[in-house]
Amino acid sequence: MLSPGTTFETKSATVRVLSLLGKGKSGYSYLVECRAQHRVLKLMHDEPCTYYTFGDKTQSEMQAYARLHGLGLPLPALLEYDVQRQYLLKEYLAGPTAADLIAADAVPAAIFAQLFAMAELLRRHQLNIDYFPTNFVVNDSRLYYVDYEMNPYLAQWDLCNWGIYYWINTAGMKRFLETGDHLAINQQAGSGLPIKHGLQERAQELIATFAGRPV
Question: pTM of the full predicted structure?
Fold first, then answer.
């Protein structure tokens, strides 16, 4: 991990680490200063994940970015990458993560509409993304997918069967953000399967309202 105040040499510039934005299955993302502008530096890690298998992480994310960008999915721009050193330099989009909004019980209907529109677009192209809420940022009332992970479509990992249960677990997400307790949002530690008990009715309401709308 990089500490705030340290520097990192990219191909184009020396960037200064401001803060850790988050850790995902594939890497650590940092808010950095680059030529007087904020950027996101993602450094890949080799930490195992019990429910996901990786190939070359940087190469995979580059390819996913190209495909998702081509489909018109709202994403931060990929500015630079290095396959050998395993990093990406991305546009920084200011705003709360979806997880922050969920924990505050403050997700507007318009954001759910955008989320389901993304899912419908991806389903039509037989793709899934990682619908976990920390992978989304709301910037100027628009929802962006700030990760680049992409997978072939499987219904069990789509929004309606998987991701939406994280988006509606307000109490669990609040506890998870405050304590890091994965059991607040997952059925079992390390399972990658969301708690569904008590949330099915709300999930079905959202699916009935927003799923399958024209993109």
Answer: 0.92
> Which residue type does 97 have?
T
154-192 pLDDT, tens digit per residue, is: 999 999 999 999 999 999 999 999 999 999 999 988 788
Pairing status of strand 127-129 against strand 150-152: antiparallel
Long-range contacts of 206-214 (CB under 8 A, 24+ apart): 206/112, 206/116, 206/164, 206/168, 207/160, 207/164, 209/112, 210/112, 210/113, 210/115, 210/116, 210/117, 211/116, 211/119, 211/120, 211/160, 212/120, 213/113, 213/116, 213/117, 213/120
At residue 19's C-alpha, the angle toward residues 111 and 112, to 5°, is: 5
